[in-house]
Amino acid sequence: MGRKKVELKRIEDKSSRQVTFSKRRNGLIKKARELSVLCDVDVAVLVFSSRGKLYEYANGNSRIVERFISSGICLSLSALCMFYIMLYSVANSRLDESLIQTKG
């Protein structure tokens, strides 16, 4: 007997949305920790809440960020910051669009 498939759409009730965010955030971090242990890999997870609060997990601490920066993917720390600002801006724009559609 399996679970009912969850419809992927925004949860309208603010309280339910917050509870789901907390549970799924904790589940995501747990899975990241398991992946790290089972496969002996470095894992980093960054999650921004709808209010902009940062939640993070890294099993290798600063070592992961240093590897990311030195890999050539990110040429400098300022580029890394700009990358996160861009991601946050895109997410914020999507939330604004969703809010406009909801208010309709």
TrEMBL record:
<feature type="transmembrane region" description="Helical">
    <location>
        <begin position="68"/>
        <end position="91"/>
    </location>
</feature>
<keyword id="KW-0805">Transcription regulation</keyword>
<keyword id="KW-0804">Transcription</keyword>
<keyword id="KW-1133">Transmembrane helix</keyword>
<dbReference type="GO" id="GO:0045944">
    <property type="term" value="P:positive regulation of transcription by RNA polymerase II"/>
</dbReference>
<dbReference type="InterPro" id="IPR050142">
    <property type="entry name" value="MADS-box/MEF2_TF"/>
</dbReference>
<dbReference type="InterPro" id="IPR033896">
    <property type="entry name" value="MEF2-like_N"/>
</dbReference>
<dbReference type="GO" id="GO:0046983">
    <property type="term" value="F:protein dimerization activity"/>
</dbReference>
<dbReference type="Pfam" id="PF00319">
    <property type="entry name" value="SRF-TF"/>
</dbReference>
<keyword id="KW-0472">Membrane</keyword>
<dbReference type="GO" id="GO:0000977">
    <property type="term" value="F:RNA polymerase II transcription regulatory region sequence-specific DNA binding"/>
</dbReference>
<keyword id="KW-0539">Nucleus</keyword>
<keyword id="KW-0238">DNA-binding</keyword>
<feature type="domain" description="MADS-box">
    <location>
        <begin position="1"/>
        <end position="61"/>
    </location>
</feature>
<dbReference type="InterPro" id="IPR036879">
    <property type="entry name" value="TF_MADSbox_sf"/>
</dbReference>
<dbReference type="InterPro" id="IPR002100">
    <property type="entry name" value="TF_MADSbox"/>
</dbReference>
<dbReference type="GO" id="GO:0005634">
    <property type="term" value="C:nucleus"/>
</dbReference>
<keyword id="KW-0812">Transmembrane</keyword>
<protein>
    <recommendedName>
        <fullName>MADS-box domain-containing protein</fullName>
    </recommendedName>
</protein>
